[in-house]
Fold this sequence. Notes:
Blueprint: E1 3-4, E2 17-22, H1 29-37, H2 43-49, E3 65-69
Antiparallel strand pairs: 1-2, 2-3
Helix pairs in contact: 1-2
Amino acid sequence: MVVPIVFGSALVDDYFGFLQYEVKSGDTLSAIAQQFYGDSGLSDRIFQANRNKLNNPNTIFPGQFLRIPQ
């Protein structure tokens, strides 16, 4: 389910919404980017959309919910 952005800027420009993704054991932002975008090099999109939760793109934890820009 894509959550549309209807008020304010909750994401990086050029996106119309986001998916919620629960981090699983062994996940990395690169692996999540590969899963959703087909390109592991686009992991910075996910990091930028979750700056309120992530201080370091190499540190994510199982059970965290991340926004995946769409």
